[in-house]
């Protein structure tokens, strides 16, 4: 099992290094890392290049997690009692690759779009809960970072409730907690700004000079 986990992490990392936001920025003749928060994720792309670029970035980051996860679970490791767990490890590798891409000197995104893809692939039934929670959190607070942290917190809670009794339940729960911890780690500066009251609110734009 260990070698399969390592294989999934390594393969996932490769997919994660497909930095959608950076690529979208380059297509628009912009290095997204030089604007706004300097992040290559969806939120900074949206603020810097607009809704279309933000949507493409989000979709790309979601798919680069969902597709390899589902292929691993439903094709490569189909029939194994821990195939679902291996799919999660692929997703974890994608999140790490997205956050720390080697070809961008390990400076990537914060992994929320990727993690949302992982959560959707793991259990599509949870999508309405995640979506509604995100919308309400952002609508009430006006902070995307708050909505992001709310949904990643719900991930292990959902697994604790819905996956209880499944094979390798504790192992799966631990991996989901790692996703949440990684997201909070990557949002450290956002949390500090939230405490200080100077976090960027939804709708704020970034001026781009080409």
**N-end to C-end Cα span:** 50 Å
What order do the helices and strands follow? Answer: HHHHHHHHHH
Counting helices, strands and paired strands, the structural category is mainly alpha
Query: Helix segment count?
Result: 10
Using only CA atoms, what is the Rg?
Answer: 17 Å
Unreliable sequence segments:
none
**Overall residue-averaged pLDDT value:** 94
Beta-strand segment tally: 0
Helix content, binned percent: 55-70%
Largest sheet: none
Oligomer: single chain
Strand content: under 5%
- Estimate the global geometry from the Cα principal axes: globular
What's the structural blueprint in terms of helices and strands?
Blueprint: H1 2-16, H2 20-27, H3 42-49, H4 51-76, H5 83-99, H6 112-122, H7 127-141, H8 144-162, H9 169-186, H10 188-196
Helix pairs in contact: 1-4, 1-5, 2-4, 3-4, 4-5, 4-6, 5-6, 5-9, 6-8, 7-8, 8-9
Can you tell me about this structure?
By secondary structure, the protein is mainly α. Helices cover 70% and strands 0% of the residues. It contains ten helices and no strands. Helix 4 runs parallel beside helix 6 (112-122) and helix 6 packs parallel to helix 8 (144-162). The radius of gyration is 17 Å and the shape is globular. The model has no long low-confidence stretch (mean pLDDT 94).
């Amino acid at each position: 099992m260990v070698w399969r986990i390592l294989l999934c992490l390594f393969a996932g990392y490769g997919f994660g290094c497909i930095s959608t936001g950076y690529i979208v920025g380059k297509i628009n003749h912009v290095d997204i890392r030089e604007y706004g928060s300097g992040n290559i994720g969806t939120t900074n792309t949206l603020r810097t290049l607009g809704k279309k670029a933000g949507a493409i970035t989000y979709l790309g980051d979601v798919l680069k997690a969902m597709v390899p996860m589902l292929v691993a679970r439903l094709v490569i490791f189909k029939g194994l009692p821990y195939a679902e767990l291996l799919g999660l490890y692929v997703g974890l590798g994608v999140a790490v690759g997205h956050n720390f891409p080697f070809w961008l000197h390990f400076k990537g995104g914060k992994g929320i779009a990727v993690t949302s893809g992982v959560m959707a692939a793991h259990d599509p039934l949870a999508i309405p809960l995640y979506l509604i929670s995100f919308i309400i959190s952002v609508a009430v607070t006006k902070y995307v970072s708050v909505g992001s942290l709310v949904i990643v917190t719900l991930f292990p809670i959902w697994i604790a409730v819905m996956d209880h009794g499944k094979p390798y339940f504790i192992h799966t729960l631990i991996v989901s907690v790692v996703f949440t911890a990684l997201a909070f780690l990557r949002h450290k500066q956002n949390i500090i700004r939230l405490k200080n009251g100077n976090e960027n609110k939804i709708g704020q734009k970034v001026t781009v000079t080409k």
